[in-house]
Design goal:
single chain, alpha/beta, ABC transporter transmembrane region fold, Rossmann fold, 2 domains, 6-stranded mixed beta sheet, 4-stranded antiparallel beta sheet, about 10% strand, binds adenosine-5'-triphosphate, ABC_transporter-like_ATP-bd, Type_1_exporter, ABC transporter ATP-binding protein, transmembrane helix, membrane
Length: about 600
Amino acid sequence: MSTTDEEQWRGVAAEDVEELDAIVGARLQRRSRVLLGSLVRPRLGTGLFALLLVIAENALTLAGPVLIAVAIDTGIPNALDGDTAALAWCVGGYLGSGLGAAALRFAFLKVSGRFGQDVLLDLRRRVFDHAQRLSLSFHEKYTSGKVISRLTSDIDSLHDLLEDGLDGLLTAVLSVFGIAVVLLVLDPPLGLLVLAGLIPVLWVTRWFYLRSRHAYRGTRGAIAKIIVQFVETMNGMRAVQAFRREPRNERILAGLNDEFRRANKTALDVMATFTMTVRLVGNLSLALVLVIGAVRVVNGGLELGVLTAFMLYLRRFYDPLDELAMFANSYTSAIAALEKISGVLEERPTVVDPESPVALPAAGTGRAVTFAGVEFRYSPAGPVVLPEFDLTIPAGQTVALVGATGAGKSTLAKLVARFYDPPVGTVALDGVDLRAVADAELRRAVVTVTQENFLFAGSVADNIGLGRPSASRAEIEAAARAVGADEFIRALPDGYDTDVRKRGGRLSAGQRQMVAFARAFLADPAVLVLDEATSSLDVPTERAVQRALESVLADRTALIIAHRLSTVLIADRVLVVEGGRVVEDGSPEELIAHPSGGRFAALHRTWLESLA
Ligand SMILES: Nc1ncnc2c1ncn2[C@@H]1O[C@H](COP(=O)(O)OP(=O)(O)OP(=O)(O)O)[C@@H](O)[C@H]1O
């Protein structure tokens, strides 16, 4: 298979493809089975023990009708003659096997339940850990809704397979084989007649499997889309309500619900046809056995007890075949879910931790940042964002990046923090290519404060403490004081222990930014990147933060992206970026004094005018 072919299915590439070609379909199925195997193998012992228990349970259950046959044909006639021993044995045996079977079922449910839970927990942990490690570029195209549907509904369908489906399959296979053997031993001609009924059943089972596979892939796809829609609506609730998107979202959800209903209808139709055929064959063969058996009993060719046993066994012979459908049902559904989960697990981070990292030299006052011949685009087919970028920022310098929206400023910041690797050229810290720096060291050396300022549920102190997990409470409070956040934090209901609630929803945007500053200050990085970090602050707070910033930035390298010129003016050097290139480079004073009036000088003039 060529590389281009592989691009069609590797990772999550084929996830939304409705009609897969046969080779790709087979590849994905194999990938799902390999994943299933890797989950089951470490727990094979527990699985085999569960299998033993269910075999023993079936063997005991199987004894029931034989004991009834013996009771009718031998026990009762003997008892009529005064010898009750055989009947007592039969009744005792029946009771004993019933109790034994119940105890074995109890043990089986416990063991198989543990097996299923272990598999699911392992899978959930694997998907979660892996999703966390995948690079930002993956999460930008693969929405959080999709990851959530992998972690919830897809894992649930594996749960259904392990909890009910597998039990159904084992019980069905064991009963069918066990009963077939007993029937053939009890009365070969009648036994063969019953077995003949299996031919149409096996044929319709195969038909069911092939048809339902496609249908279940459809239902999994549809449910995933519904979850994505839910998650996105809930995440963007404020925008949804502000822009009155509710009716549109309702229409979208109605469409998705419809898609789900159609996919489910196909699955249910196939299931109904299957169940009907199995029942039909079951009832027909029951009637046939009753007629033939009755004639033979009348003619003296068959004992009544044997015919009764046949009748009892036949019920148990066809009923579990329904379970086969349940198994095929949950198996196809789980394989479709595993296909998607294994796709996520197959994705590789595009930004990888080096195998043999190079240690950064001891930090002095910040670290030098260099871009050498960097060419960057977000995806191989996307537009070039940085055509050819060269820049050296000496250690300790505070650089402000200014430029129009979409010029590439944030992209430069993301490259310094190594959220992406440039396909061409290098970004280096103190001369060490970022690709060679261990992730943990890089995260200590470079800290970014952005406009989003994501806060985790927990206290204000916890959120600041994220900057340096080993920090004491006193250090956390000192960091807040340094950026001027101490006052508002103390005014909160529980001060530093106030719960910020989901995403810091209890704090204002400006307060969240102050917490983020304190967090970055506590982390004490050699390189600090501020991407629109002061944009939510009001003017007095911004002034206060700026004063704090000047001391915070003093002994480190800083990259500031700001639209407000007041923030830019504290920089040692200003770079005006346009179309991914630096078009002006100098100190704020130099650029303002540009003899022929450069872009920054123009920006500065407009700003002064706006203040007037
Ligand atoms: N994740 C992404 N995937 C694809 N393209 C992107 C992505 N992020 C940014 N871009 C594109 O890269 C270009 C530069 O974006 P960037 O965010 O660096 O601009 P910026 O100068 O920071 O703009 P702003 O001042 O509005 O924040 C834009 O054309 C943008 O559309």
